[in-house]
Design a protein that fits this description.
Helices cover 5% and strands 40% of the residues. By secondary structure, the chain is mainly beta.
Length: 183
């Protein structure tokens, strides 16, 4: 398992090894003690999965506040996404900055998005399935969002012509500067 730091402290790309032969391949996609040995000691409580039919489905930017802040470990089961983490820790030197990593089922890479970061992704191909582990259960009273097209963030979501397919609440989320509830 290879752990690759990104430009934002705490956000890492994880590349599990794949062992293949003429039948296909096998991979240990999550190995707690290997991550712990690398300084990542998270107690994941729940596994989630999403399916997005059209290319250009955009989910995010989401986060939960304490006491239900979530660390997320994201991977793609089918298709590919542009996975984005935005630093929303007010005292961070990288506040308001983001990283974007392409995750694909073919590569099997993953992105660890710690609490203190907003998270979102756009699908790069149709019929994409995303699985992610979270360290806290969903708590609607702690759920928050930041607008996906906030000009201050300048995220290139790699969207198809015509723009994204969004949920109603993602389409009306506040800008980062207008979001009072951050870390």
């Amino acid at each position: 398992m290879e752990i690759i730091p990104t430009a934002l402290d705490g956000v890492v790309e994880i590349r599990p090894a794949r062992h293949g032969d003429d039948r296909g391949w096998f991979s240990e996609v999550y190995k707690r003690h290997t991550l712990r040995d690398a300084g990542i000691d998270i107690d994941f409580l729940q596994d989630n999965e999403s399916f997005s039919a059209p290319t250009g489905t955009l989910r995010g930017l989401h986060y939960q506040l304490d006491p239900h802040a979530q660390d997320k470990l994201v991977r793609v089961i089918h298709g590919s996404i542009l996975d984005v983490a935005v630093d929303i820790r007010r005292d961070s030197a990288t506040f308001g900055q983001h990283v974007a990593v392409t995750l694909t089922a073919d590569e099997g890479n993953q992105l660890l998005v710690p609490a203190g970061f907003a998270h979102g992704f756009s699908t790069l191909e149709p019929d994409t399935r995303v699985a992610y582990k979270v360290s806290a259960v969903y708590a609607p009273d702690c759920e928050r969002a930041i607008r996906w097209d906030d000009p201050a963030l300048a995220i290139d979501w790699q969207l198809p012509p015509g723009g994204p397919t969004l949920s109603g609440k993602d389409g009306i989320a506040p800008l980062l500067a207008d979001q009072p509830d951050l870390f």
